[in-house]
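Narrative of activities, Objective 1.

The group set out to show that a structural description can be obtained from nothing but a protein's sequence at a throughput compatible with the screening campaign. Below is one input-output pair from the validation batch, recorded exactly as produced.
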Amino acid sequence: MLKPAIAIVGCGRMGLIRAQALKCVSHRVRYVFDVDSNRASQVAGIHNSRAVASLAEMNWSELDAVFVCTPPNDRAAVEIAIGLDKHVFIEKPIHLSARHSLSLLGMTLPRNRIFAVGYMNRYRSSIEDVRNRIESMPILGFQAHWICKPYMVPWWADPSKSGGPLNEQATHMVDLIRYLLGEVYQVTAIQGMSGPGTVSIMLRMQSGCIGTFVYSCSATEKDIGLRLFTQHTPIVLSGWDFYLSDAPWQTSPIQGQSSEDVFLSETKSFLDAVESGDAQAVRSPFADAFKTQVVVDCIRNSLRLGTHVTVEAYREELDAL
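Output recorded for this entry:
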């Protein structure tokens, strides 16, 4: 069976990572595009691909799938690809807001294609282990934090291009909370005294579980973690890799865990889904990522309004548009 013909749109950090992952699984990229021709040439060199000067230069009829690795405000390639019935992988977040995403959601729903979003933490073995084990385990509450420095690319600090740090970066933890603990019922967010780069969020889940999430992009070092409180020992996931450092099912100290290339796992899962036609391999389909976007919007609305925001009420507003 012929392997899918692929294009990469957006050749910054994530475009480069996807190109390298595709090479690892022996998938050739046919076209690459970026507004920066030097970046496009760098990624094209990995696969001996054709670097094009515009999306119109690609022969879309040759393509099966497209990786869209552009900033959140630029989803032109997504619209083209969906309209031409191509499989699409989109780096998170899906857009600047849920309102901006509605037309894309409407385009994806009736099509029998694979639409995946790059919430890579869903593909970590530690996360999948915890998710499977807590299905029948009461979770009393949770504490999450994502502390880091600003992402040093020009578009990241511009809300008109990234949607702001909460939209572009804190979305990782919001999505992970949803993936492990189910849907969010209500959020309440307050801004830190140090400025808009630090936010504390209280989340009430539909299950009744409650927890907090502190996000800051005002630090100089990275500190990431998630702690789930059980009736016994807490479940502790630590660091960028979310290593499982403690859990009630552990009878002895957890030894060092091997590192994994989560971007490779995520890329391979998308390709497996494209080749088989079975969307089950994709852990973050577009329709589910839209739900994460809705929660992120609610957090921003809570900050703006100075009160709690109910997710379902905001979703009803969107449905009325």
